[in-house]
């Protein structure tokens, strides 16, 4: 039987996910279709009723529903519950089950694309919003040695560091953006992650770090932004001799994990990657 999966969010704008998933379904000869649905925040409970009634096989969840959908689902997997955010839902015979593949997609990309295992590493994360929360939780789960968080909204970084401290057995601190403390943390760090939107198209000349902050050559700089693929931060990092990685790998790999949750099949990563790149162009 023809199965429908999709994406709910508001506003949706251009999304790469339909192209990526539909190419993967075609590649494996699966009778599935991925459709974007724009759902206003006030309509979320009604939209879920509709999606259930239509027997949708599953769906992705994006801004602004990732957190508000949690109490509306029948079951939420442990790490998604800990993060307080869901980006993938499976409809298992009428039961809506919530997952979070963002953080796991990031860890897969770190290992596969940046060839870096976070276990035992010292890491700095900029941005304590939804993506920063997912990434920091999974870095803690993956066994990083030390985590330092910075957000322009200091309260958010403080709250996230307290939550990481309470769930995981590691030291998690927060520092002020562009401060001497941040510079000291970066001097000792193995990995820097940008989980802020600073540098994203169209504001490609911006960086989350001020020019006085210096990066050392042994640092890996991972930018969650994938448009443009070379952000100002990544260009600066490259000029300092640091290794760099853009967020397209995370986008593709979180999609691949969702694909497997819905279909039970291994995702054709190369096909998804190619479709994502084409859709971005
Ligand atoms: P968000 O909820 O807006 O969180 C970003 C946080 O960073 C906000 O608290 C923001 O504060 C803060 N911030 C802004 N400038 C900063 C700076 N210079 N230093 C430190 N913190 C700063 O956004 P999000 O949903 O977490 O997404 C963040 C980025 O990740 C976006 O670019 C998004 O596209 C990307 N992302 C990529 C993937 C992927 O698959 N590659 C997946 C998810 C997200 P203010 O709100 O006060 O500005």
């Amino acid at each position: 039987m023809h199965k429908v999966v999709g994406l709910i969010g508001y506003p949706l704008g251009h999304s790469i996910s339909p192209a990526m998933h539909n190419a993967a379904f075609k590649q494996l000869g699966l009778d599935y279709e991925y459709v974007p649905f724009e759902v206003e925040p006030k309509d979320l409970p009604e939209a879920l009723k509709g999606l259930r009634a239509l027997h949708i096989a599953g769906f992705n969840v994006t801004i602004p529903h990732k957190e508000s959908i949690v109490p509306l689902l029948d079951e939420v997997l442990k790490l998604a519950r800990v993060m307080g955010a869901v980006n993938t839902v499976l409809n298992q015979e009428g039961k809506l089950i919530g997952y979070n593949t963002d953080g796991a997609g990031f860890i897969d990309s770190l290992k596969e694309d940046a060839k870096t295992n976070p276990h035992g590493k010292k890491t700095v994360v900029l941005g304590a919003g939804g993506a920063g929360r997912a990434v920091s939780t999974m870095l803690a789960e993956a066994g990083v040695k030390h985590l330092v968080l910075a957000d322009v909204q200091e309260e958010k970084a403080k709250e996230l560091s307290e939550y990481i401290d309470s769930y995981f057995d590691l030291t998690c601190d927060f520092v002020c953006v562009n401060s001497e403390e941040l510079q000291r943390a970066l001097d000792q760090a193995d990995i820097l992650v940008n989980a802020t939107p600073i540098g994203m198209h169209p504001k490609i000349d911006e960086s989350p770090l001020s020019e006085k902050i210096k990066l050392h050559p042994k640092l890996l700089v991972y930018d969650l932004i994938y448009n443009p693929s070379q952000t100002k931060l990544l260009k600066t990092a490259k000029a300092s001799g640091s290794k760099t990685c853009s967020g397209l790998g995370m986008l593709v790999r979180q999609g691949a994990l969702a694909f497997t949750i819905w279909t039970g099949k291994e995702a054709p990563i190369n096909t998804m990657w190619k479709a994502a790149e084409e859709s971005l162009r």
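Residues 164 and 172 are 7 Å apart (CA to CA). The two ends are 33 Å apart (CA to CA).
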